[in-house]
Each structure stands twice: as structure tokens, then as C-alpha cells.
Design goal:
Elements (H helix, E strand, L loop, with lengths): L28 E3 L13 E5 L10 E5 L5 E2 L1 E3 L2 H8 L29
Antiparallel strand pairs: 1-5, 2-3, 3-4
Length: 114
């Protein structure tokens, strides 16, 4: 599957105690975005995505700008922080259902969406 050895999955938690597993491949804790932690254009509104699609999907509290950008936030658990501080990457899984991939941006903390 991995022809280039540098592309093989590796143990990114070298030196981390065996009981530190982070979210174990599950999503980080979803939090409601805070209007005060981001610079947002006028007209940005709070939207709960997939609010009525339980149990298939989790509700995703979001801020949606007038031009269609969607801001969502997650909070890492303490074990996630240990793994991140030991070189583990943040992994983003996008379910595109074989449709075009939309541009994404990942930042730490708030964002300037003005």
C-alpha cells in the first residue's frame, strides 16, 4: 500500500506513556464558536449544522459568514495535547462523497475572517 517508506504511518507518540491515546481516532470535543475570539464580517450568524440529523450526524455549532465561510471549533482533550506536543499531526478527514473538495483552512485559536 505504501511504496514510499516515508509515507507509511508511524508511531508519532515515541516516548509518550502507553496509556496516552488522545481521542483514539475519534473527533475532538466540538465547542460552540465564540464570536468574541474571531474577527468576523457583519452579518455573520450562528448556525447549528446537522441539528436535525441525529443519530447519523453530530450537531456542529458554527458561525457562517455572508459569503459562505463556515467556522467551527474543536477543543483538544489533555491526552491530545500530549500527543501534539510529541510531534503527532492533526488529521483532517473530509467526507466529500466523491464531490469536489472545497478549500479549507486550519488555524489555532481564533480567526480573522473579515
Amino acid at each position: 500500500m505504501y511504496e514510499d517508506p516515508s509515507l507509511r504511518p508511524r508511531d508519532c507518540a515515541g516516548g509518550v506513556p502507553a496509556d496516552v491515546r488522545g481521542t483514539g481516532g475519534k473527533a475532538m470535543k466540538i465547542i460552540s464558536p465564540d464570536f468574541g475570539k474571531c474577527l468576523l464580517p457583519e452579518g455573520t450568524r450562528a448556525v447549528n449544522i446537522a441539528e436535525h440529523q441525529k443519530p447519523d450526524y453530530l450537531t456542529l455549532p458554527s458561525l457562517v459568514t455572508p459569503d459562505g465561510r463556515v467556522l467551527c471549533q474543536w477543543m483538544p482533550e489533555p491526552n491530545d495535547l500530549i500527543l501534539l506536543n510529541n510531534g503527532c499531526p492533526i488529521t483532517l478527514v473530509l467526507h466529500t462523497f466523491n464531490q469536489s473538495l472545497q478549500p479549507i483552512q486550519m488555524v489555532v485559536g481564533g480567526a480573522d475572517l473579515r
